[in-house]
Specification:
Blueprint: E1 6-11, E2 14-19, H1 30-45, E3 51-56, H2 67-76, H3 87-95, H4 100-108, E4 129-133, E5 136-138, H5 140-146, E6 150-154, E7 158-160, H6 174-182, H7 184-193, E8 197-198, H8 199-204, E9 210-212, H9 217-231, H10 234-247, H11 252-267, H12 270-281
Parallel strand pairs: 2-3, 3-4, 4-6, 5-7, 6-9
Antiparallel strand pairs: 1-2, 7-8
């Protein structure tokens, strides 16, 4: 796919996916949705990539849905948005849809249905995804960051659910994922009020994992990403990510039984042997992911 609203770069085993509509604070469109999904699939399938960073060009991460599209929906009703024939088609035009190739890939990977929705596919990408939130993350932009594995914020980052101030509801599973990150009361506060939260408050409530100074923000994010890409087992990252996200649907007994099975497999892996060998030999690791 040729990208028009996304940039894709790769260096030192880290893929950087950049939302690239800086003049609109990277406001979300259907084109951007499809390009991000393609870029994530590309990075997930690339053996030369071990960590993915998602960020925004310019001053913002993603200011939410493009207001021009929302204005059209408000003026015409979703059943007529962009000439579509149904509300479902209207939403797809704004949010993007899965291609047949993406559906086939999900089937091959045995991806659970929970991780096949418009934004909840990110947990099924078999590599850590870090949201590098350089500025405003509102509405859909916030949702996108919540489905990433980690959220690192610049001191200039700002967060808002936005929906209640637009006459909308808790969209795209945010009612499920947000309370798991910040707790029930904080989630209701952010959803009800749609107030703007700065980076330090986001950190205090667990919405942001780390806060970096604006100067050197991406350098800090990439230093962390590089450490993951070079110092830890990509096999361990892949399995741990799947364990943690799937555990959200499991009992403790089920999670423990799954861990027992995975432990047996890990003890048979090349990465386990390398993990022991490099420690004993006091040298940098050379993990293969197998």
């Amino acid at each position: 796919m040729t990208y028009t609203e996304v940039l894709y770069d790769k260096a030192d085993r880290v893929a950087i996916v950049t939302l690239n509509r800086p003049e609109k604070l990277n406001a979300w469109t259907g084109v951007m949705a499809e390009e991000v999904r393609d870029a994530m699939g590309r990075a997930g399938a690339d053996d030369g990539v071990r960590v993915i960073v998602l960020t925004g060009a310019g001053r913002g991460f993603c200011a939410g849905a493009d207001m021009a599209d929302l204005k059209g929906a408000a003026g015409q009703g979703t059943s007529n948005l962009n000439g579509s024939e149904s509300p479902e088609e209207a939403v797809s035009l704004l949010m993007g849809t899965r291609t047949e190739e993406q559906r086939e890939a999900e089937n091959r990977l045995n991806v659970r249905s929970d991780f096949r929705k418009r934004y909840s596919y990110l947990p099924a990408v078999p590599k850590p995804i870090i949201a590098a939130i350089n500025g405003p993350a509102a509405g859909l932009g916030l949702i996108l960051s919540l489905y990433c594995d980690l959220r690192f914020a610049s001191e200039k980052a700002r967060f808002s659910t936005a929906f209640s101030r637009r006459g909308l509801i808790a969209e795209h599973g945010i009612s499920w994922v947000l309370p798991r990150i910040v707790g029930l009361s904080n989630a209701l506060d952010l959803l009800f009020s749609a107030r703007m939260v700065d980076a330090h408050e986001a950190f205090r409530m667990g919405l942001a994992n780390r806060v970096f100074p604006e100067e050197g923000f991406m350098a800090g994010v990439l230093a962390y990403a590089s450490d993951l890409a070079t110092q830890v087992s990509p096999r361990s990252l892949r399995v741990m990510k799947r364990q943690v996200w799937e555990a959200q649907f499991q009992s403790l007994a089920e999670a423990a039984s799954s861990a027992d099975r995975e432990l047996v497999l890990s003890l048979q892996s090349d990465d386990f042997r390398e993990g022991v060998a490099h420690f004993l030999e006091k040298r940098p690791p050379e993990f293969t992911g197998t």
